[in-house]
Structures are given as structure tokens and as C-alpha cells.
Amino acid sequence: MLKLIHFFVEKKSFVLFVLLELIALILVVNSHNYAHLKLYHYQTTISGWSNERLNVVNQYFNLKKENTKLLEQNTLLLKKIQDKASQQKTSLIGQFNFIPAQVISNQYTFDNNIILINKGTIDSLRPEMGVIGTHGIVGIIQNTAPHFSKVISILNKNIKINVSLKNTNYTGFLEWNYQNPNKFDVVDMPQNVKLKIGDTIVTSGISNIFPKNIPVGKITNFKKVAGLKNYKINIKTFMDMRNINNVYVVNNKYQKEIDSLLNKTHKNQ
Amino acid sequence: MNINLKNIILLISFVVLQIVWFNHILIFGKYTPIIFLYPILMLPLHKNETIYLLLSFFLGLIIDFFLFTGGVFAFTAIFVYYFRKAFFMFTKENAVDIKNIQPSKLDFVQKYIYFFVFIMLAELLIYTLNAFNIELVVNKIGFILANSMISLFFFIFIDLIFFNNKEQ
After folding, report:
1. Residues of chain B contacting residue A20, judged by C-beta atoms under 8 Å apart
2. What is the ipTM of this complex?
3. Distance (Å, rounded) from C-alpha B69 to C-alpha B65?
4. β A96-106/A215-224 pair status
5. Could you read off the pLDDT of A141-156 as tens digits, one per residue?
6. A-B contacts at Cβ under 8 angstroms
């Protein structure tokens, strides 16, 4: 026993080093577990609060660029209103509404990137709501605190979003290729669809997280996957993930209804 | 000023700089320099190891807190702090030489090789622990190398402008 105590005293910095590395590793492993731990709730609140204050300076320097983007967005929205007016009304019109929010922290350099926004449970935000930006999809809410929410960016290896080729019902999954924040792959797109470079990829609307037809990006290249009857498509997104400030959280009014129906179906199976 | 206090202030200042400014800048549209390691690399080799180990851990943890990276930066900070000795075992012949080393007083080439080795190691650790997938890290080796070079540039800049061994 004395020898053991002597060892710990003699090698105390080594023992401390091993202990601290172990604690750090446990924290790393826990951070990869996407369970909604209480710890993350507090982290979202504190980190959100401090990042919001730090972000004030960045917002000031980006005012001119942001104004241009808002003008572009207004133009697009006006066009959409006109298009909508000319479309035939369906019973689900108004299925989605949009809650505006501001990005207070945005990561794009890792493989598991996270975004923080300044709206939370007080604004009726909840996990698994979609987030879109001026030019396309941004991510999905992972967890929420009263005033802030943590969003899994589309630049994250844990996210796959159902997308389709514009004006068709052929779908595939959007995945980040980890090389460039604007370059993505669409996998599992069936080979019987006719593709050409420059075609637009949009959200499919299948998951009910994002409305149908939100523009995602343009095809830059595609190839047939050997052994599978699928295409692997390279796309360049319309949204510049390095420059996001204003976003909209997508609220599907019928989400609870859809979820309870799906739960019943799963229980019956 | 007391050397320990000076080192502690430097460590905290660099972590604040990393969180407030360097985490938000993108060089050539995709590279983010990691500068918080500079004061860790400049700490004395065999003095107050317990205090500096704990401080490196907590400061790394603060960066993790802001980046939602669990304990990636804490792990990296103490790894770099502890394994600096190993680097000097390759360059110095005996234990007495190693005990007398002050990283801030290394010669130009030796200091920058020392910086580069640990920046590269730290970047590799950060991306490996963050991705939890070796294949992804292998695909990103070019990016990691470029990011390390950019971080090294900032280290050299900081070293030459602010810490150019005036007391030597």
C-alpha cells in the first residue's frame, strides 16, 4: 500500500495526466452520443448567451452584405407569393409556418458541425424542426433551451436529408462530402431518372421536416454506382454555409398528428 | 511580474482570443488557425506541472464548451503539454539538458520545428477525436496540413512580434 502511495506521489503529474485525458475522452464519447442530456441543455443556454454577445460585432461588420441578402430574399418571397396565388389551392395549404431566427454561432470546419440560433422553447421551437436559410436548407434542430437552440448543420456526418430532382418524384439522400462546405453528394438516386449537369435538386418533403421544393443545389457531376442501380450525384449548394446570419425554423403544424399516426402504425406492426 | 502569474494570464488571454476571434475567421475561405496552444508550448518543462496540467485541461474545456466538441480541445491541450518532454528527448542527449530547456529560448529553427510538430499533432488529434472516423481523417490530411501551416504562420508572427526574447 505504501509503495502504491509512493508511486502516486512520485509520478503525480503522470497520474494526473492519465486521469485528465480519461475525463476528456469520456466527454468526447458523450458528445458523440446524441441523447438529450441535461448537460447539453445548460451548455446550449450558456454558450448561446455568450456567443450572442460576441456576435454583435460580427453582425455590425456584415450589415451591408446582410441587407443585400435580405433584399434578394424579399424578391424571392414576393415571387413565391405570386406563384402561390396562381397555383391551385390544396387542403394542406399553410401546413408549414416559419419562425425567423438569427445565427449566433456557426461551425463549418469540423465533421460534426453545429449551429446555435437565438430562438428556443419560448418561441415554440422543439427538436427535429428543420432550419432553412436565404438560399436553401441549413440543418435540423437537435436540442432546445428556453432562448436558444442547437442545430445539427447539414455539414455534419450524422445528418442525411431526403431530396429529389426538381419536378420529379425520384428521391435520394443528401450527404456532405467533408471536403468543401458547398459540395455535397446525393446518393441512392435511381438510375431510371434522366439527369443532366445543371439540374436542380430540391427537398422532397417526404420527411415532413422540410417543405417540398426548397432549393438545395445544382448538379455538377454524376456517375452510376457499380453494382447498384443508383446514381451518385455531386452538387453545389445554393446556400453558402460559411455565411449564414438570418434563418427560418420550419414548423410543421401537423407534425404531432403525423408522429402519433406513425407511432400507432409501428405499435401495430 | 511573477513568472507563474504571467504564464497563467497568457494562457487565459490566448484562449479568449481563440474563442472570440480565431474561431470565427476563415483564411482562404476554409482554414481556421489554432493559436491557443502557443502559451502551452512556451511553458517551462519541469515547473509546476500539476498547476499547468489542470489549467490546460480547464482552458481546453472552455473552448470545447463554445464549440460543442465535448472534451476534444481539453484532451489536445494536456496531450501537447505533457508530450513536449518527449520532443526534447530526441533533440537533447541527457536528462540534465532536458531539465534546463526553456522553450522560449530555443534557437529559431529548433523553435519553429517544435511548433510545427505540435501544431500538426494537435490538429490531427482535434480532427480525429471530432470525426471519430479514421477514414474521414485520412481524406482530410491535406486540409489538416494546410491548416497547420497557417497556424504555424500565426505562431511565428506572434512569436516575432510579441515574444522576441527580450530578456535573453
Report:
1. 53-54, 57, 74, 78
2. 0.86
3. 7
4. unpaired
5. 998 888 889 999 999 8
6. 106
